Amino acid sequence: MTREALLKLVGTLDLERKVRLLTGATVWRTRAEAAVGLREMVFSDGPAGVRGEEWDERLPSLLLPSASALGSLWDAQLAAELGELLALEALRKGVHVVLAPTLNLHRTPLGGRHFECLAEDPELAARTGAALIRGIQAHGVAATAKHYVANDSETERLALDVRVDERTLREVYLAPFEAAVRAGVWLVMSAYNGVNGTTMTAHELLAEPLKGEWGFDGAVVSDWGAVRLTAESAEAAQDLAMPGPDGPWGAALVAAVRSGGVPERAIDDKVVRLLTLADRVGALGVGRGLPPRAWPGGTARRLLRRAVAAGTVLLRNEDVLPLDVSALRSVAVIGRHASTPRLQGEGSAGVFPADVVTPLDGIRNRLRGQAEVLHAPGPDLGGRPRPLDPAQCENPLTGEPGVLLRVLTAHGRELSSEHRHSGRQLEPPLAPEAHTVEISAVVRTAGEGKWTFGVGGYGRMSLAVDGQPLVEGEFARDTEDPAVIHLDPPRQHASVWLPAGHPAHVVARRELAPDTGRAVVVTAAAPEPDPEQALSEAVGAARKADVAVVVVGTTEGSESEGHDRTSLTLPGRQDELVAAVAAANPRTVVVVNSGGPVELPWRDQAGAVLLSWFPGQEAGAGLADVLFGRAEPGGRLPTTWGAALADAPVTETRPRDGTLVYAEGLHIGYRAWLRSGREPAYWFGHGLGYTTWSYDRLQAASTHDAHDGHDGHDGHDGHDGHDGGEALAVEVRLRNTGARPGREVVQVYLARPDSAVERPVRWLAGFTAVRAEPGETVTASVEVPARMLRHWDTEVRRWRTEAGDWQVLAGRSAGDLPLRATVTVRRSSNRP
Ligand code: BGC
User: Among positive and negative, which fits the CA dihedral 713, 717, 722, 723?
Assistant: First the structure.
């Protein structure tokens, strides 16, 4: 429908009815309005899968690799296919709006949601994000560019005020959002934080550049609970306050309009935008054109498996990979993450996957009947105990694997009772008299020793084993953060000595105090074997086997929404484990299972190092494809990995007096490393395949005409905005010098050493991938969009291109650029 037609519809509604639409109906739904043919719209997180309206482990979702793995693809086509997969999951689950992608940046390696963000480089994040958006929206499902803007860390995330200069905002943090608008995104989510003194849901940045200069015609939805001011946010270009049904708009906003505090046309514009969204997703007038569809058979899983291999980054390879199955007799698979990998980060992005393939499964499946697989878990990681799962316990009533969930009145009368799979229940069913949630299970003790049990939640809680009280306690709610209250409340643990083979009857209860959420978490951890023995068993297995694969990673509770990280060290004795295994077997492959950077102090001792990131449900299948050469590891680092946290140039995530200063300005990621003169362990863009390449020649026109207007002296504003103008064509000739066919990501950077304005030492300006057979020479054509030559001129507040000599560099990472050329940029008033 046209804007005029929608405005006409809006004109039929009175003020109350219009304002009513601007706050959600429920946590995940918007309101319907029969008078204009508007139905409810369902929103769902995002970004690694589509959860749907319920936090219910019985309603699984396909789990994609997390965003840092997607940032490693450097492949818009594959990112778009994954976007399509999200759309089809959304249709299957009746979801109209997917709350993805996250377009904030890897400003520091410590960011709690680093795993959920695509890259440290704005252009790589922009291209990957835009591809995801196109894929999602191709099926009539809305994507959401979030969180607008400067929401790059978690500490004090609800209140934090980011101080960032205008040029840095434009060139770095806003750039991926601008690309999202160019890609036609239907929603933008305003962030919790403030920028330069104003909270984002009331910020002028929602009007300019978002809706004005960039021409965004979709709706701005708030992050959940982020609208806190009535008139200010309504006057700003905030359109929809989520969640509902309550919020700071409603009657207060009606009153503000009536008293003249907020113009009614601002309300009309919001409603038009909401109806535009509804029209796009099929929630207005005649129904959704597309019937719910699922991907046929194994296609979705095959795509996920391909994505795992394509996002896996090979950091180092001393001729160990790929492994030749026919020449292997045995493989030692070592580490806790081999059998219990981290598939996703924690927080609102979480979904419940089914059919998970662990690294150990993947390797076993591939080697079945061909080589022996020895598994040694290694020492305990010291992380938090995991919630009860069906492999560990039974429902005391039915004996089925899993737990019994009951809701009781204050007098202990049962209101509901159901079988569930997990000891982590985030939305136990609510009835009017509900007072206590109870989770019980029979845990069969595999070994004798000290078992540790835990219960988490706000309010009063208790846990008993075999009738003996172990935990009695109370947590008062101490935060406003929904990611903590509803997803990860505090836990209390206690231990008890149990004999082996004992059916331990565990009963945990949590009282439902008002305003404390409903989440209950019950955990049980088996006694840990002697760490020295576990270590020596791992080393023994490595020594015996032809090859050792050690899977290491971060543990539950770190890499989570709601908290930043404080250390990049692998937890427990994992560093010691890797060093010992590598010393025992030079053919040791280390697989790092984390969403963001960790320190790899043993990296020069390992035969090969792979980053699997948080790979999603096909983790082990994709890993086996890479290990045994069925697929090349396709990933390139979307973020620079330092050797040690202490070396990283930007690490501050803790606000001072509520303020976090982005003092590094334009210089984040590899730009900061370049400026500091420090050498990281692995540069942005780095990643090996299974062949080698020689970069032979770089060709670019020696002159380039920039069409961004006059010098500004004549008063003309002849600029093309950020996006227009002619691209700079760069051709890179390279040869596959190895013995295998391969894919190479050819990267082009720009530098402007003699600039009159401050610049990064160099910045990514374009990239493309090529494939070649052994010995074959190919030419990569890389387009450098004109915007990559522009800087934001804060004096005249527009994009400018400096005339003069520019360096064009090409190669395989920000730190390995063997080819260069000079291009002279001439300013032309000859506008195209
Ligand atoms: C997160 C968003 C998420 C929303 C809804 C917020 O706490 O920051 O990314 O989409 O919750 O779950």
Answer: negative
